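Work Package 3 (structural annotation) set out to generate three-dimensional models for the target panel prioritized at the project kickoff. During this period the team completed the workflow that converts sequence records into discrete structure tokens, so that structures can be stored uniformly alongside our sequence database. As a representative example, we reproduce one entry of 326 residues exactly as it appears in the project archive.
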Amino acid sequence: MKEIKCIGILTSGGDAPGMNAAVRAVTRSAIFNGFLAKGIYRGYEGLINNEIQDLTTQSVSNIIQTGGTILKTARSAAFMTVEGRKKAHDNMVNAGIDALVIIGGNGSLAGARVFAEEYNVPCVGLPGTIDNDLYGTDSTIGYDTALNTIVECVDKIRDTATSHDRIFFVEVMGRDAGFLAQNSAIASGAEAAIIPEDQTDIDQLEYFIGRGFRKTKNSSIVIVSESKKDGGALHYAERVRKEYPQYDVRVTILGHLQRGGRPSAYDRILASRLGTASIDALIEGQRNVMVGIQNDEIVYVPFTKAIKRDKPINKNLIKVLDELSI
């Protein structure tokens, strides 16, 4: 195996609070252990376009507290092609980069897996996504901050919902995972969460209206996971307007508001731990793995497991919300 002397770092896919803390940790840990560090701007697209610069300890000063990513990020259609990946590899070789640390979500790690297989490049992934949907890690970088942002927003919406006797449907991110919706519902005292993992034969809207609002509530907050399948919060609000016209309904879609902001202390610490562990992984000869955290211990999870397996939600959380929202 070729000796690793220079490590390339990139952030890819949707940005997440804590990515900068991860970039800082990878850079400084690499330099501490005698490697050169190079930043690749705009993710895989930047690798194809040769947007590569040296990183120093100074390059990553004063960024741990900032949201977004100083390396920028982009989604790359070109990297999905054989020609695009060849161009990316040529630029990587010309820049003297021997290994890659990729900070991103499901799609980013899937790209790393293909690239690693095609060109035998040591790749280590860090789970950077607010969705918390990567298998093999208890938490992903950005999830805690996004959760706190949602709770802060719902607390404010609650004031209006109570003042006007309204049902508010609040749509949150998460793609096909309900972690943000379920936990923010518990933390904000919401009356219900409609999540993909709880799709049973029971009509979740009918259950919520019949059990709670109709009997005791003068206002209600329902957190809904975004969903292309059923239309998310707008779909449920429209149903209430048609089926229960006596209720005053409003919709708030938090959207990209959830991605921004200063990372929480937890996300800064998590990103710092995972970042230093990514360099440890390369030193140990690990490759094609995601660095995760399980029971407060660092773990290495093969890309194939992290990407392809569904991360289960703790069904006890559904029971907790059910009992506390009476």
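The CA atoms of residues 196 and 300 lie 28 Å apart.
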